[in-house]
Amino acid sequence: MKKHNYSAGPCILPQEVFEKSAAAILDFNNSGLSILEISHRSKDFVAVMEEARALVLELLGLQGKGYQALFMHGGASLEFLMVPYNLMKQNGKAAYLDTGTWANNAIKEARFFGEPMVVASSKASNYTFIPKDFAIPVDDDYFHCTSNNTIFGTQMKSFPETAVPMVCDMSSDIFSRTIDFSKFGLIYAGAQKNMGPAGATLVVIKEELLGRTGREIPSMLDYQKHIAAESMYNTPSVFPIYASLLTLQWLKGQGGIAGIEKVNEQKAALLYAEIDRNPLFRGTAAVEDRSIMNATFLLNDESHAPLFDSLWKSAGISGLPGHRSVGGYRASMYNALPLESVELLVAVMKELETKI
Ligand code: PMP
């Protein structure tokens, strides 16, 4: 039986993506070859790469606006250092918003290149909210933020107007809600939430920002080299990129980001309403900053955990435990999670109430 997968990532993808990916492993485009054995320089794969890069820009509304989409390796974690390598001047400064573990990891890596200045942090409250009042120095090289904090279940609902380029780690909410993406100089995201399987990282960058740091950059870490090579500087992650293309095509069929946003809002509203109504549970994130992707919540009485755990597991739900730094539960409701899965979880929460 297919499980209701609430995993934070890698995570659920559309069923049709699993099916088409499986078919391509056996025979890609009726070529008599598996997607796993074809050359990345083959005509068929070059077409996949071109379509995937173009579709990313189309879905984000960034076509013809000076942006390039790249499929990189190394996860979002490698971008923590590629961003300062490519955008921070020698011993330069950049503003960072500290909203959680991943933001912190980005700050740590930036220290190898210059001075990341933390403009605001919610660390003292274990990252239960998004800081809102902060100033970004106009002479910084860029401002870095994390749009959605996968572990803590908080999400930036608005983005500041900045005089400097805005860089955003959108790993866990890219393609999930309408945003004016042209406000950003650089966006990056590991594929393994809303875009595809692990193994590819999306980078969307405004090309005019590159080549200004005065530093020499090793080839594999240089965005300009990857752009010049049309995202094929070395062998790209062929299969994750193909599966990402299938997911992007599926998303387009759902009405693009605006279409899926409606479903995402419906799913989140349903679950948060139950968290707030049910006296056995409480949410961990500030209400105005609650993520529509990752809902974090606790049992008010920990002794109910064994019963709740056995109920959701026997209902066919998977991946619900929270991250160890928050505890409790985390329901990750990425684009491909159907509304019915949320209805089921809500029913199980109600069932717990009747059994106590
Ligand atoms: N940023 C965010 C917001 C994340 O959720 C994650 C992983 N869950 C990362 C960065 C790290 O991504 P990766 O494992 O692809 O390096």
From TrEMBL:
Its cofactor is pyridoxal 5'-phosphate. InterPro entries: Aminotrans_V_dom, Aminotrans_V_PyrdxlP_BS, Pser_aminoTfrase, PyrdxlP-dep_Trfase, PyrdxlP-dep_Trfase_major, PyrdxlP-dep_Trfase_small. Binds 1 pyridoxal phosphate per subunit. It is found in: Cytoplasm. This is Phosphoserine aminotransferase. One of its GO terms (molecular function) is O-phospho-L-serine:2-oxoglutarate aminotransferase activity. Keywords: Amino-acid biosynthesis, Aminotransferase, Cytoplasm, Pyridoxal phosphate, Pyridoxine biosynthesis, Serine biosynthesis, Transferase. Homodimer.
